[in-house]
Amino acid sequence: MDYEELRELLQFNDEDKKRHESTLFMPNEIFQDLNKGLNESRSSSNDNKEVEYINVKGQLRKKRGKSNGVSINHITFAYTYIYLVTWLYRYAKYGKGSTTIKKEHLKMILGYGAKTQEVDYLIKKNGVLEKIGYLETTGDYPIDYHYSNGYTYEMYINDLEPGEISFTTFSEFKEKDEHGYLKDPVTYNILNRGRNYKVKYPVKAFDRNVDEDGNIEMLGTFYEVDNTHLIPFEVFLYCMRNEKIGCTGFYLWSYLKMQNQIFENGYDVSIINLSIETGMPDSTLNKYIGLLKSYKMINFYHNQEAFSVAYKEEDRKANTYETRDYFSFSNKPVPYEKIKVITKDEYLKQLKEKEDERRIVWGRSESNVDIPLEELPY
User: What are phi and psi of 275, to 5 degrees?
Assistant: First the structure.
């Protein structure tokens, strides 16, 4: 889908500044939760499956695709799906527009076929994302939202914060008056999506931490934004309309954005550590880091002049990454500076030259320095 198709389907209002539909906070722990939850779910589902082996040059090996690990594509889809359904709920989009937003639309927005069943195990009722506590299925969808302080445009332009948010849900329009009639039949008919219409309730947006007794220890991201990362909706739209970026690029950019909110001067991280932190294989990570660079979605800085596989561990320095604002992204890929790669022989030659320089003292080799006996301290 292109930008205008997405904007129309999702009824994104980027003109009403009072509503300010760009803003959405995501919990920082989501990256770890998804990697752990999805991999544990896949591992348990494979426990009772027979492992297939093939003979490769006289050795038995597991058949490809039989690994217990979940696909990184499914982890990045899960993050993006949670972001989207949270945004839809936050801005009460289920009750707007002439199109009823269904799961088929959501799959298509996120780059999958409307009828594909590949990711259904994640998003279905009682699926993985519900089992790990991020979503619930409900038929009572929001049709509007309100702020406790009324939040006017004048308050917005004066940099005043909106009050606590509350929602009007469809069930409120099912209430009848004393004569047994719907209180608002016109609105009911407009907003009625059918008795079987279900949406996703974003659990972490309301209750983030709940103890064993059911007591809320921390309110959700709609109410408390400590330990969250802010992802503008325009970034989501940009990534979804660019099939090269997609869910995986959106996931990676969002992770770097989270780290940039913690490390304001840029996030220093090696590819190895970034792979561990995000759960992305090295090859996938290198590919998407390159795409984020080429579409000017991130700034990056090489903290060493060159790289060689022969570099000692202590000589290797991590790159620095900074996420850029969405309005500075490029619509076309552009060339970017790559670090110079040198051979092992070149690296060893450089080491020798540095060692020779270090050994030169006042223009003479250390082994040839003559010190008069009277200048010795003993």
Answer: -65, -45
